[in-house]
Amino acid sequence: MSWQTYVDDHLMCEIEGNHLTSAAIIGHDGSVWAQSASFPQFKPEEISAIMKDFDEPGSLAPTGLHLGGTKYMVIQGEPGAVVRGKKGAGGVTVKKTEKAMIVGIYDEPVTPGQCNMVVERLGDYLIEQGL
């Protein structure tokens, strides 16, 4: 299965009649493996900061999680495995796998829990596959 298929069929899937705003699979080095057409153009330092938070949980909290120039307030995640951010009625979930990060961005009516479920389920599957 191609990486784009994971984004199109698994991350951008229908969730109770709605969809994530955008999603991507990004290598630990910041290379884009696949993304939805609506995924924001991000800066390499944004990815570096997220990766640092996986190694040093809490490092993003003082400055916020930045992605595509949007600043999200960091909220409770799983240290070393999941980083979550909130901005208004939307937010972002980032799940780290062995070789990549699974990123889902949502806005109402999608809920944080629905985004977490979609992103983390795919992340867990890829971890099981050693990816």
Automatic annotation (TrEMBL):
<dbReference type="InterPro" id="IPR036140">
    <property type="entry name" value="PFN_sf"/>
</dbReference>
<keyword id="KW-0206">Cytoskeleton</keyword>
<dbReference type="Pfam" id="PF00235">
    <property type="entry name" value="Profilin"/>
</dbReference>
<comment type="function">
    <text>Binds to actin and affects the structure of the cytoskeleton. At high concentrations, profilin prevents the polymerization of actin, whereas it enhances it at low concentrations.</text>
</comment>
<protein>
    <recommendedName>
        <fullName>Profilin</fullName>
    </recommendedName>
</protein>
<dbReference type="InterPro" id="IPR027310">
    <property type="entry name" value="Profilin_CS"/>
</dbReference>
<dbReference type="GO" id="GO:0005938">
    <property type="term" value="C:cell cortex"/>
</dbReference>
<dbReference type="InterPro" id="IPR048278">
    <property type="entry name" value="PFN"/>
</dbReference>
<keyword id="KW-0963">Cytoplasm</keyword>
<dbReference type="GO" id="GO:0005856">
    <property type="term" value="C:cytoskeleton"/>
</dbReference>
<dbReference type="InterPro" id="IPR005455">
    <property type="entry name" value="PFN_euk"/>
</dbReference>
<comment type="similarity">
    <text>Belongs to the profilin family.</text>
</comment>
<dbReference type="GO" id="GO:0003785">
    <property type="term" value="F:actin monomer binding"/>
</dbReference>
<comment type="subunit">
    <text>Occurs in many kinds of cells as a complex with monomeric actin in a 1:1 ratio.</text>
</comment>
<keyword id="KW-0009">Actin-binding</keyword>
